Amino acid sequence: MDANGFERLLDQLRAFTPRAEVVLEEVPAPQKLATFAFAFSADVSNGKAGDEEDELASGRFVLLHEPGGQDTWEGEFRCVTFVRADVDTAMQEDPMLPEFGWGWFLSALEAADCRIAAPSGTVTRVSSASFGKLSPRNNESEIEIRASWTPVISNPNEIIAHITGWCNLISEVAGLEEIPPGISTIASARSR
After folding, report:
1. Residue 179, helix vs strand vs coil
2. Alpha helices of 36-187 — where are they, by DSSP H?
3. Would you say residue 146 has pLDDT above 90?
4. 92-127: pLDDT as tens digits
5. Can you list the alpha helix ranges (DSSP code H) found in the chain?
6. Is residue 45 exposed (0-12), middle (13-18) or buried (19+ Cβ within 10 Å)?
7. How far is CA 50 from CA 18, 44, 53, 54, 185, in A?
8. Which sign does the torsion angle of CA 72, 74, 76, 81 carry?
């Protein structure tokens, strides 16, 4: 795929609309990792209006394209992601949380009918306690999922399924209820 083909693919990515609680924004992509790169950041809210709205999760999705591929990728495209969300204390203390997080990642892609190769990543639990003048704050716990995978595609337009899978992941990590098959949500009117 040449520069014009990649730009046509980006037009499709820019037109992608996730569920209403997920706001995507195009951000500068990392340079020097591949000939072509594109990135979205995402913020997931509880969907409530005004002061009651809370951020539930955030993340970043990067699409890399190297014509001819890279050996470690096992293909010409590579998806790289970071997802972060608050978790409650009980979940933070569960020794299986990293395995659950990795399972959520794989299941989200599978649910979007994504075929992948060479998946890799880490799932991290982060816990912080506040002291001194910050001691009135509650202790905080988060999960962070960092992952990359090679989309197995026969047509570059199939990348949309991988964006969909990633939006499924960030929605699940945020604790949003699954949208039943055949049901559509009202698209977010918030700006990108």
Report:
1. coil
2. 89-93, 97-111, 159-173
3. yes
4. 778 888 899 999 999 999 999 999 999 999 999 887
5. 3-15, 89-93, 97-111, 159-173
6. buried
7. 21, 15, 6, 9, 20
8. negative
